[in-house]
Structure formats: structure tokens, C-alpha cells
Amino acid sequence: MRFELLRDLELVRRGWRWGQVRPEWPEPAAAIPELPSLEWARAEPVRSLRWLVQQGLWLPFTRLMTRPEVEGDEWLRDQDRAMILVSNHVSHADTHVLLAALPDRVRERTVVGAAADYWYRRPWLGRLVSFWLNTFPFARSGGAQGVLHSSSRLLRSGWHLLIYPEGTRSPDGRLQEFKPGVGHLAGETRAPVVPIHVQGTHRVMPKGRRIPLPAPVRVRIGRPLHLEPGEASRSFTRRVERAVGELGGGSRAPEVVGSWIERWRATAPARRRPRPGGGRGPAGGA
């Protein structure tokens, strides 16, 4: 026993390095706030209050400031099935513009993904954006299992989910690499993924600016994408990323925007729209 104690002391003495600079460990990073439960933001009377604020205040203001040109919104008409709406991200104005571009029926059922470490660090700010835009907090660092589970639950409950897979605003407007979460989410829920590209919002509210400026914007909505049998989630994420990039590049290829017959069929009422597997009936339930 005494021999083992002396040996341990000798090891400590040798490892201490007397007279040398001691190592300094970095300060721990600020913890990501615990993601709050926001069921209240999607329940009455909050939903009705948000609708009144949207219709009477920020939707008219957004349309007046940006005069959005929307292309491809037929893919969102009479859509009963929950969808994952995926867009590029260059400005804080993106969310307002994209929500203004959505049909009323889709907007009222859309939850917006918001970075927890940015919008929810201050509880009052998190509550405000949750009421104002029906946001959903997600963590940009750490494990993604909890975020995917919550997102899946929203989709299965019939809510559409608007997310920015780049994770943050692009500093120069160029499309950044998508995070793989969108592929995992599509694989878990089998929800269709609608690629969207927004252009011009960097002039409305550049990064670092708090007051919006009037500028025209353009929103292009592409053909919904589905995970193919046997397709890996990361490969599907790359396919979604390419579709968003091609929409931004002005592509009118049928695989990106759909053929004219597909766009015409997309405008048919859901109860008359042919099912993917044949026959007629609802396009799908959440």
C-alpha cells in the first residue's frame, strides 16, 4: 500500500513540470437554451390573433415593400399533405417574403424553423417570434435527434415545415452546403420536399441591418421531390440542394419546375387529383 502511494506521488511530481507554464483550458461555450414547448403558439386563440396580425399588418407591409413576383405556387394549391418547404437563406426578410408568397391555406398551417441559439436565447424574443411567425426552435449545434423527432411530430400532425438547410444566412448570396437533416426528415416522414429559391431579399434587409428597405424580390417554387426507394438521405439532400440552386439559376427544366401537364394537374382540387398509386381520392393525409 505504501509502495503504491509513493509511486503515485512520483508520477504526479513528474507530470507537474515544475516552473513551466500550466495549461489553460478555454472557457465553456454558452449553453444552447432548452428548447421550449410552443404548443400554445399553434392553439386557439393565438392562431386567430396571428391571422389578424398577418392579414392586417405585416402581409400588406411586406407586399408593399417587396412587390414579390411568385412563380410555381400551383404546386402548393389544394395541398392537403404536410410538406417540407426548403429555401435558401440570405436575409431576415426571407421568412416574411416566403410566408407572403404562400397561399393562405398553406401559410396558416406552416411552422418556421428558427435557430434556438439566436432567437430563443432571450425568452421574450422567442415568445414574440413564435407568436408573430409561428416559429419552431431548433439547435444548430449538438445532437439532432431531438430536433428531428419534434419536426417529425409536427409533420405527422399536419403542419407544413419551412426550414433553411444552410443553417445560417449566406454572407455573399451564394448557396451554401445543405445540412443532412432535410434528408433524414424526409426519410422518416415520407413528406414531399418543395424546393424554393428567394432572390432580392439581401437588398431588403442585408445582414447586420435592422430596418428594411424597399426592393423587389422574386420567389420560385419548384416541383416537389420525393425520396426514391433505396436512396440515401444524404444523396436526397444533395438532390434538394441542386434543385434550389437550379431554381436560383433560372432553370426551367421539367425535373426542376415540372412539365406543363404536371403543373396543370397540381391545380386540380385534392379530392379529384389522381393518387400516386392510381385511383382517385385525397392526395394524402398528415
Gross geometry? globular
Order of strands across the widest beta sheet? Answer: 1-7-6-2-5-3-4
How much beta, percentage-wise?
Answer: 5-15%
Into which percent range does the helicity of residues fall?
A: 40-55%
Number of structurally distinct domains: 1
Number of helical elements? 12
Based on helices, strands and strand pairing, what is the structural class?
A: alpha/beta
CATH class: Alpha Beta
Radius of gyration: 24 Å
State the distance separating the first and last CA atoms: 68 Å
Which residues form runs of ≥5 with pLDDT under 50?
21-33, 272-286
Largest β sheet strand count, sense and barrel closure: 7 strands, mixed
Fourth-level CATH superfamily: Glycerol-3-phosphate (1)-acyltransferase
